[in-house]
Every structure is written in structure tokens, then in C-alpha cells.
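pls read this stuff:
=====
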Amino acid sequence: MNKKVFLISALLFFAVTNTSFAAEPKPSPTSAALNSQINQLKDKIASQVSKLNLVEKRGMIGTVQAVANNQITLSDRKGNIRYVDVDEITKFSSGTNATFGISDVKKGMLIRVLGIYNKDSQRILARYIDTETIPTRYAGEITAIDGKNFQLTIMTTDQKSVNVEIDTTSTVSSYTTGGDLTKYGFSKLTVGNRVFVTGYPDKKDATLLIADRMIVYNDAPKDASIQIVTPTLPATIAPTSTGGKSLKPIK
């Protein structure tokens, strides 16, 4: 009796197992093609993500070392050599040249670059290039003030006379012993004030400095190294007395 039950159970098990395996659907050609497209899309996304990880937006300032075709070689502030690539959509600008382009970029020029940096090739594809102007700095003493034209003359510690103009964009501050900077007016400036000024040369007159910022040190003592030379006037010759006698011309 037990053998019959065992045989019947075994036959039922194999029958159910074969039925379950037969019921599993086989992949159709359509689903196989769809899976292939999905895998290809995954590969493309992974490839793009890998490329994006290699590039980043970056800006740099450097001195031009060489210009050849569509490549600019720069030396940055740390002395590292950088390579900049230029293409047809790179934009150029300069405050002194409205038609500034790659042909105007010369060795020794200081430029600023903004573009896409490739970490693998260590090159930057420039999107914007413009000239960078370093402000001029002077420390000295006011020797003359022209209130009508808002200009003043400064004598520096190396005995250089500099003409400075204060315009509407200039910031003038005073520095006190307490270490605070307070707003200062042009009308308060006096001859003998110790000052520190930064600015840029005037576009029309290179001998005139347009002040960007000026600090007045009201509590600073006079600098002995600054010697203000006052022009010597010619001596006045006193008229000679004739003793009341009239002089007659010699014939």
C-alpha cells in the first residue's frame, strides 16, 4: 500500500513540475530588441557621465607666453604653464579695443580666460577672453590740490610726482589710529596729508591717474623721505637811486 502511494505522489510531482516549466514564457524577438536598446542607452549615459566628470568650468588669469594658430600659452600667477584653445565661438573683449581678437593677443599681455577645463588633457577651451589691467598703487603725500577739477598732486617716497583725479566712481576713506575706515570727502583733503591711492591711467591722458580708491592717514606723521622742493624765485634787484639828478643820454 505504501509503495502505491509513493508511486502516485512521484508521478504527480513530475507532472506538476513539467507543467510549470512549460508554462514559463520565452522572450519574444520584440522584447529582446527593446532590451538591446535599453543596454545601448545605458552605455551612452555612462559614457557621457564619464566625460562630464573630466570637464569643469574654470577661469584663470595669466601672462601670454606665445600665440600660435588657435592656441594661447599662458603663465599663471604661480608660474605654471597653461594651454588655452580658441574656437569660432570664443568671444574676445578689451576696454581699449572694440575689435579685439586673437590677432591682438601679444606676448607679455595679461589676459583673463573663462572656459571649459579638461582634467585629462589639462587644457581649457576658452569661451571668453578679455584683457586684465593691474591697478597702479602709490603711497605719498599731497603737495597740491586743484579743487576746480577735483585733482591733486602726490609726491611719492621715491620722489615721483603723480597727478591724481577723484571722480564720481572713486572711493575716498580716512584711516584713524583706532583702525577704522570712514568715508572722507574731497573738500577735507589738505596739502601734507599722507595718502595711499590705487587707480588706472586715464584713457586720454596717460600721465593722469583716475583714483579707484584712496585712503587718507590723518594721524600719520610727515615722512622725512618725501622732500617737497619749492621752486626758488629770482632775487629782486632794488632800483638804483640817482640822487635826484636827471641823466642825459650820451650823444
